[in-house]
Recover the amino acids of this structure.
């Protein structure tokens, strides 16, 4: 709620009231009393890339050396920085901490923001990441958020309020944007960047077009890393089942009056634990090594000027996602073993006849410049990301000998030989807390993406029988502004507007021993106005009401799945026109006695000309389509409570209806074996209506809850923390079938340990009940699926300094 007591923040260099929480000169916790100081032109088809591993030093040798170096560097840096810092400050001893968010590009109290926003706490982050968890582990831990992947750790797909994209192509567009330190990460292989040394994770639900631009009709997931001017650091190590090793650390602080730095990194490793019974040896799938680093340098010669330069790096080496042939019993969604319907399913066994590997390297450098000239702050964010990717796997998930129907061996590889993304944003934001507040800015985006796809006629062959090459070039720019004005002491209005302009071109070439040979070309272009209007009413010091209407936009898309199309290359290219969304939302945010925080939002939306992906089928050729409308409605409710000093409780629940509304929407069904339950088009038995279907990967119900309790012992406490997430039924494709769905999933975690202000030693378990659920499928030529992570347990120790 608005804090009307300026004496709480009457410290040196502070000129904003508590509603905006902080400014560039002052970071204050008033309760704790601390002051921490175009048409892109004609392009020829891309050159042919050989399907080889990404070149460079041996991954394992490189990692061993670099990881040791990073550990030494972080440990050494700790002796050069300021003294240790304590745990997160609380709003009041034993009470709830204030939650600060930047959902509106300003630091504000969560309760004052007229949006449906959720924040993942530090304790929940620690629990989720234990045992090698990656960004997909956030699925279900936030109401209305789902995350899944058919590529594993390297290509996450995000869904908010039922809206997402199941497309597995490496140029797939998504309606959920991921923003990392104010930088939009567009390509899916960027979105899996590991989560470490994070100040906050925010999930903004609903269209965010004004301040965050295109491709945000569903919402955004926003990560803000710890800044280099924060003194101190930490080191953390865990070891668990399947030789799961996780190392994480950071150290930072002032190097002089003007300079500060922060180095942080994470290294995760897991041994292969799935046995391909047709391959020599044991346990040769599902292992990985994943290294990520971040270095931040900051120069602040005065209180008004700040320049931060950030470099980031990721190196992943592992196996591709394990696809399991005929894992669904025909006519049901029951999981079955390798021996068929009468054998129990085992996570640790599979039959596959192809090579399997996955490699990813990412690099980025970014600069953020801030100049506070009194009435306003000017901010410039410049970023460049580059990456290379290679993933090869057995797409039919089995061998021709069975079980089930697998007519031939299918082994394919998808590479990104080159990805370059450049973004630039310049914005100005008023500093005043009274009267009219404003933000305005411009944004530019430029991406060059090369994709090379290969099909192999023999499972372990290295000479492809078919090669498909894509070169995609995308450019976009936007201009935006937002105004907030208090009509009365209790009522304020916010309105924003953004103009978006997008261009995309795709060149496709294909060659091989059979099928279509040649080239194809597609271009898409559009511009659009997005806007939002919201009102906030402070009913009391404990209750805020808000309402919001917003229009969002997703740019037109192109997809060139030429590898398995046997007519012409041009036939393999599909396009989708831009989609727009009108969203209506109202909510209440409450906080009582600093012990209970309860927020509730209800929403309705119409997604017009919705972009969907008709995935797979007999040709394994995903195609983009537009449907007239997707009608959605639902609610989110979140509760956080600290009934007594040592007990903390949270709970969240969401309901999402996201149904296709188009009587002319028909697609082909699966390639073989499944039982489609949708009505067939007259005289077309293999083509089915999807009108009225819930979108894929969109559970109607999602529930999460946590509980933490501590007992003081000595200088610290013995504590226990448990977190749980439930989701209801999900379908895997636009059509519905008896097989390609999962009824529900319930996963829980437990963490028990002893901690002080500096040390923490704990045992942990993830997926404590060992829930086994299908999380996706492939409908190419059999009943192929993939499943969730198994139970992981281990020990973790950490230290703060």
């Amino acid at each position: 709620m608005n804090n009307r007591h300026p004496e709480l923040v009457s410290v040196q260099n502070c000129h904003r009231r508590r509603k905006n929480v902080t400014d560039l000169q002052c970071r204050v916790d008033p309760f704790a009393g601390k002051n921490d100081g175009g048409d892109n032109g004609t392009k020829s088809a891309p050159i042919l890339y050989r399907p080889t591993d990404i070149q460079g030093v041996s991954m394992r040798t490189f990692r061993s050396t670099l990881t040791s170096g990073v550990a030494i560097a972080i440990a050494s840096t700790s002796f050069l920085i300021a003294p240790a810092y304590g745990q997160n400050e609380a709003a009041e001893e034993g009470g709830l901490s204030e939650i600060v968010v930047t959902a509106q590009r300003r630091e504000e109290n969560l309760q004052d923001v007229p949006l449906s926003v959720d924040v993942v706490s530090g304790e929940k982050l620690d629990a989720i990441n234990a045992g090698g968890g990656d960004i997909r582990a956030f699925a279900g831990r936030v109401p209305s958020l789902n995350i899944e992947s058919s590529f594993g750790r390297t290509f996450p797909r995000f869904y908010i309020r039922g809206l997402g994209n199941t497309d597995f192509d490496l140029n797939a567009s998504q309606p959920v944007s991921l923003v990392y330190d104010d930088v939009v990460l567009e390509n899916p292989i960027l979105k899996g960047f590991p989560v470490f040394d994070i100040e906050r994770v925010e999930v903004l639900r609903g269209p965010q077009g004004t301040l965050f631009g295109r491709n945000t009709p569903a919402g955004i997931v926003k990560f803000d890393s710890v800044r280099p001017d924060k003194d101190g650091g930490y080191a953390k190590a865990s070891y668990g089942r399947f030789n799961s090793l996780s190392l994480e650390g950071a150290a930072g602080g002032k190097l002089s009056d003007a300079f500060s730095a922060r180095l942080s990194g994470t290294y995760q490793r897991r041994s292969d634990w799935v046995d391909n019974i047709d391959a020599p040896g044991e346990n040769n799938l599902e292992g990985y090594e994943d290294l990520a680093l971040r270095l931040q340098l900051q120069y602040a010669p005065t209180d008004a000027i700040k320049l931060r330069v950030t470099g980031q790096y990721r190196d992943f080496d592992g196996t591709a996602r394990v696809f399991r042939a005929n894992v669904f019993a025909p006519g049901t969604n029951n999981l079955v073993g390798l021996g068929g319907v009468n054998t129990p399913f085992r996570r640790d066994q599979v039959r596959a006849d192809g090579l399997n590997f996955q490699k990813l390297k990412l690099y980025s450098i970014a600069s953020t410049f801030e100049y506070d000239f009194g009435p306003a702050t000017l901010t410039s964010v410049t970023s460049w990301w580059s990456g290379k990717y290679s993933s090869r796997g057995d797409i039919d998930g089995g061998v021709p000998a069975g079980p089930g129907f697998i007519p031939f061996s299918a082994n394919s590889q998808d590479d990104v030989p080159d990805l370059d993304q450049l973004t630039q944003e310049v914005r100005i934001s008023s500093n005043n807390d009274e009267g009219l507040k404003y933000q305005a800015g411009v944004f530019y985006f430029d991406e060059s993406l090369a994709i090379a796809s290969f099909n192999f006629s023999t499972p372990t062959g290295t000479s492809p029988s078919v090669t498909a090459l894509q070169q995609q070039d995308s450019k976009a720019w936007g201009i935006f502004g937002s105004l907030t004005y208090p009509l009365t002491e209790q009522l304020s209005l916010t309105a924003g507007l953004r103009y978006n302009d997008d261009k995309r071109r795709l060149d496709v070439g294909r060659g091989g021993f059979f099928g279509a040979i040649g080239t194809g070309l597609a271009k898409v272009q559009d511009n659009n106005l997005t806007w939002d209007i919201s009102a906030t009413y402070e009913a009391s010091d404990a209750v805020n009401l808000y309402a919001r209407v917003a229009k969002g936009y997703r740019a037109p898309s192109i997809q060139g799945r030429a590898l398995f199309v046997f007519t012409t290359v041009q036939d393999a290219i599909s396009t989708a026109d831009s989609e727009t969304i009108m969203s209506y939302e109202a909510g209440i945010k409450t906080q009582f006695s600093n012990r209970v925080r309860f927020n509730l939002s209800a929403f309705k939306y119409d997604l017009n000309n919705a972009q969907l992906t008709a995935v797979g089928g007999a040709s394994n050729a995903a195609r983009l389509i537009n449907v007239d409308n997707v009608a959605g409605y639902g609610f989110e409710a979140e509760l956080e409570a600290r009934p007594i000093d040592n007990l903390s409780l949270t709970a969240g629940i969401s309901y999402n209806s996201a149904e296709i509304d188009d009587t002319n929407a028909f697609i082909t069904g699966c390639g073989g074996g499944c039982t489609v339950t949708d009505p067939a088009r007259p005289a077309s038995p293999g083509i089915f209506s999807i009108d009225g279907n819930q979108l894929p990967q969109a559970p109607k119900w999602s529930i999460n809850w946590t509980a933490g309790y501590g007992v003081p012992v000595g200088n610290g406490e013995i504590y226990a923390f448990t977190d749980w997430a439930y989701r209801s039924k999900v379908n895997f494709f636009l059509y519905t079938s008896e097989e390609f769905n999962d009824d529900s999933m319930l996963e829980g975690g437990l963490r028990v340990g002893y901690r002080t202000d500096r040390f923490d030693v704990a045992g942990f378990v993830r997926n404590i009940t060992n829930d086994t659920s299908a999380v996706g499928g492939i409908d190419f030529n059999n009943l192929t699926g993939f499943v969730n992570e198994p139970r992981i347990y281990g020990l973790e120790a950490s230290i703060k300094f």
The chain has one domain: 6-800.
